[in-house]
Write a structure and sequence with these properties.
Order of helices and strands: EEHHEEEEEEHEEHHHEEHHHHHHHHHH
Largest sheet: 6 strands, antiparallel
Distance between the termini: 31 Å
Structural class: alpha+beta
Helix content: 40-55%
Number of strands: 12
Strand content: 5-15%
Radius of gyration: 23 Å
Shape: globular
Bound molecules: adenosine monophosphate, magnesium ion
Number of helices: 16
């Protein structure tokens, strides 16, 4: 992260001191491109906590100037709007040149939490739109807005979303919908695909400039290393972050849905929310993207796909690295880092603070039982946490967990092993810890869908209320108890595809 001193807060986007994105990299990397107006626009959702983190005034939402700038209807003064070029592998196949087809960066601003790139997603066509319209629909924009806050609330690295604006302008997908713009915020939107692009086109010096820029801005500790070691260090660091991210996704039952290399962040952020889903009933083979006919991006395959994607990044960096061996060694660390990170997460979910040889089997047998009965992933872990918390006083504390299983005898047998493993640990403090690890609220598809339907009817109250709840997913929120329950029957009929 850039350590430049924070600036004093500025009133509106038109007075923010903008710097072009991608620093000094210049025209090879950033093609100037203004947003295309969508007037008339209105606010759909705003993220007051992110606004505060960025040191921006709380009343920004009162400003017409901000609405105009953040929906792309007026150019923020001093901003340097542009789109970047990248390539990538989509569904395991080289797709050639892609690029920001519907995301326009206004530029970077210096904030109390470091330099942040401010991007308008859905602000109209760019030189990289190919056959697309450069737009995003209200439905998918609300999903991205809520999901990125949900991930942040869960402590999972992600791009953020400052606001969503909507407009009656029609956008045609499978049916006629309306347009929206999400203002996305991240220290950087650099993707594996950016590296793949300059490697594939043989632009080795541009590739080096990109790598050096990423190192300088985001991995400064690597800066003093010699070339080979610096680029292998970069690969190592991206590998480490990606392994940590995958462990976090798996531990909350998050399916990304489109883990193409152009959707992978070199900072290890969750990036490009499309057909994602937080799983309801536990099924490792779950495919959330209806366009993913082969199940390449099924829940259980995500960690392996991430490794495959890291190989693509490694391949792209090879023109900068003389010797394959250290690059392969950097990639190889994934094989230890990911399982270690996942074991740590799963042990934490069970309230186990130390590691024992039998822990892996304990986790596996629970997951197997959950899979067999399609037990709701989030409700199970939350009820288990509550049960442990109450088990010091209550004889039947585990009954609400047991009730989730069809094969109760399987759960009973597991519970005996689990309680033996907990041993004499203080149940209240273990339970308390588990309640801070296993969320009560996740962005279930049906909750997003309800908020979307209300927003389509002009009521944005649920979008804002969901944002608040998902920001603090480990808290109780008694007024919203219903949002913590099992998915209703109709949730399984929600179809989410890439078309957004
Ligand atoms: P995605 O599957 O959303 O990651 O998108 C893959 C590529 O298609 C990226 O280069 C996007 O910028 C581009 N893209 C997706 N939707 C649109 C759209 N509506 N208009 C233009 N480009 C798009
Ligand atoms: Mg994408």
């Amino acid at each position: 992260m850039n350590t430049t001193a924070p600036i004093a807060p500025m009133d509106t986007p038109t007075r923010w001191p903008w710097q072009p994105s991608f620093g000094a990299l210049g025209a090879t990397f950033r093609t100037p491109c203004p947003p295309t107006p969508l007037a008339p626009s209105h606010w759909v959702g705003c993220n007051p906590r992110l606004l505060a983190e960025l040191g921006l005034p709380a009343d920004l939402w009162q400003s017409q100037e901000a609405l105009d700038a953040l929906s792309g209807n007026a150019l923020a003064e001093g901003s340097a709007p542009g789109a970047t070029v990248y390539s990538g592998h989509q569904f395991g196949v080289w797709a050639g040149q892609l690029g920001d087809g519907r995301a326009i960066s206004l530029g970077e601003i210096n904030t109390p939490v470091g330099v942040q790139d401010i991007q308008l997603k859905g602000a109209g066509p760019t030189p990289y739109s190919r056959r697309g319209d450069g737009r995003a629909v209200l439905r998918s924009s609300i999903r991205e807005f809520l999901a990125s806050e949900a991930m942040h609330g869960l402590g999972i690295a992600t791009t953020r979303a400052l606001c969503v604006t909507g407009s009656p302008t029609p956008v045609f997908r499978e049916e006629r919908e309306t347009a929206a713009v999400v203002t996305r915020v991240a220290p950087s939107f650099v993707r594996f695909g950016h590296f793949e692009h300059f490697a594939a086109t043989g632009q080795t010096e541009d590739l080096r400039a990109l790598a050096d820029h990423v190192v300088q801005a985001h991995f400064p500790a690597l800066q003093t290393l010699q070339d080979n070691a610096r680029y292998c260090g970069l690969l190592q660091e991206v590998t480490r972050r990606t392994a940590a991210l995958m462990a976090q996704w798996q531990a909350v039952g998050f399916c990304h849905g489109v883990m193409n290399t152009d959707n992978m962040s070199v900072l290890g952020l969750t990036l490009d929310y499309g057909p994602f889903q937080f799983m309801d009933g536990f099924n490792p083979e779950h495919i959330c993207n209806h366009s993913d006919s082969s199940g390449r991006y099924a829940y259980a395959r995500q960690p392996q796909v991430a490794y495959w994607n890291l190989f693509c990044l490694g391949q792209a960096l090879m023109p900068l690295i003389d010797d394959q061996a250290p690059a392969l060694a950097a990639l190889e660390t994934y094989k230890a880092l990911f399982p270690q990170a996942l074991d740590l997460r799963m042990r934490a979910k069970l309230g186990l603070s130390d590691a024992q040889p039998q822990d892996h089997a304990l986790v596996e047998s629970l997951l197997k039982a959950m899979q067999q009965d399609r037990v709701d992933f989030t409700v199970m872990w939350r009820r288990l946490s509550q049960a442990v918390f109450e088990s010091a006083q209550l004889a039947h504390a585990f009954d609400p967990v047991r009730d989730l299983f069809l094969h109760r005898e399987v759960f009973d047998a597991w519970r005996i092993q689990y309680e033996a493993r907990l041993g004499s640990a203080d149940r209240r403090s273990v339970g308390q810890q588990m309640l801070r690890t296993n969320p009560k609220f996740i962005l279930r598809n049906h909750l997003g869908e309800m908020a979307i339907q209300q927003a389509k009817a002009g009521d944005f109250g649920m979008v804002q209320a969901l944002l608040d709840v998902l920001h603090a997913p480990f808290d109780e929120h008694p007024a919203y108890e219903g949002w913590a329950g099992l998915a209703p029957e109709w949730a399984s009929s929600i179809e989410i595809s890439c078309s957004s």
